[in-house]
Design goal:
347 residues; Immunoglobulin-like; 2 domains; seven-stranded mixed sheet; five-stranded antiparallel sheet; 33% strand; disordered C terminus
Length: 347
């Protein structure tokens, strides 16, 4: 007869062991201590205040008060990009100056770069940390456009070149006539036409102020102002030559030269005579001079970023390519078997 007591004792022992294991699994393991790291420095612009004042000569006077928080990282200063070229339309940025109410270095330098004037404020040998306040002032000529029903200003008062968020931005527009028609949209460059409408209120008959909170990096505030016809003296807009102003003649010349270089490569492969190295060097020299003369015609009066690629420049580049191709083919031939000797039939 089986031992019922032993069976009961074995079952009780098994149940007890299972209960102990379950209780051990239910006790949470002590977490390993996590090393606390200092948060990365985060830069931002808590406040950005702009005053756009239009005078009777249609000049736009800009005053930007920028509160910049460098956190603990520290920088040498700030850099502001102001457009001097939009498409082929030209503006003149002048009378640039800067200051700081917090004592930060505020030496202003300006440099034309591509389509913008880059204004840097600060000192290369001195780093600043924490929250600093800068004031940048400059004037813009040629910003207003004459229209049939008035004179219009379209200007991004904040710019899209900031790589840090802006907590609160305020733009005050001061006009020389009472109750100007003005509007503002905020957002990234691709969506500003249908972007967020800024809050606004009038501050007297000659001024209107727009505010916007929470601008992300790369977002700006485009201000549109329409003044009555004759309220200001608007000069005709200035335009630069397009970057690519070549006609069909220059394009055909470039295509012909590429074809000539291909023909030289084909003749080289079949053992045909090639132009000498002197010919290639002469073509490179002549083409370089022609291209430089065309570039200088635009760059000397307008600066290094006013170049326009026209027919003379294309012809010069084509000549340089042809000369370089001839020289390369000649060097390749000499590298294969010394000086080239025509092969004849001596049988």
């Amino acid at each position: 007869m089986p031992d019922v007591g032993a069976s009961l004792r074995g079952a009780a022992a098994a149940v007890g062991a299972a209960a102990v294991l379950a209780a051990g699994a239910a006790v949470p393991a002590r977490a390993a201590p996590v090393e606390e790291r200092e948060p990365e420095p985060v830069e931002s612009i808590p406040a950005y205040d702009v005053v756009l004042a239009i005078d009777e000569d249609a000049a736009l006077h800009v005053r930007e008060t920028i509160t910049y928080d460098f956190d603990r990282g520290g920088e040498h200063g700030i850099a502001r990009r102001v457009p001097y070229r939009r498409g082929n339309r030209l503006f003149e940025i002048r009378d640039v100056r800067a200051s700081s109410s917090t004592g930060a270095p505020a030496r202003a330098r300006s440099l034309r770069l591509f389509n913008d004037v880059r204004i840097t404020v600060g000192e290369r040998g001195r780093r600043v940390t924490g929250r600093q306040a800068y004031v940048i002032e400059y004037a813009v000529d040629g910003a207003l456009t004459p229209r049939r029903d008035g004179d219009e200003l379209v200007w991004d008062a904040v710019g899209t070149g900031w790589g840090v968020p802006i907590g609160e931005a305020a733009v005050r527009v001061e006009a020389p006539v009472p109750r100007p028609s003005a509007s503002c949209t905020a957002g990234a460059p691709g969506v500003r036409v249908a972007g967020t409408a800024c809050l606004h209120y009038r501050d007297g008959p000659y001024a209107i102020e727009f505010t916007q909170r929470g601008l992300r990096p790369g977002e700006g505030m485009v201000i549109r102002v329409l003044l009555p016809k004759g309220a200001v003296r608007v000069p005709p807009p200035r335009y630069a030559p397009p970057r690519w102003r070549s006609t069909w003649a220059g394009t055909v010349a470039l295509a012909v030269v590429f074809g000539a270089v291909g023909l030289v490569a084909w003749r080289c492969g079949r053992g045909r005579p090639l132009p000498g190295s002197r010919t290639g060097n002469a073509l490179v020299t002549c083409g370089t001079l022609v291209a430089l003369a065309d570039f200088a015609e635009d760059v000397v009066p307008g600066g290094p970023w006013a170049f326009a690629l026209g027919d003379p420049a294309l012809a010069g580049l084509a000549t340089v390519i042809a000369g370089a191709g001839f020289g390369y083919a000649q060097r390749a031939r000499l590298g294969e078997g010394g000086a080239y000797v025509p092969v004849g039939d001596y049988s």
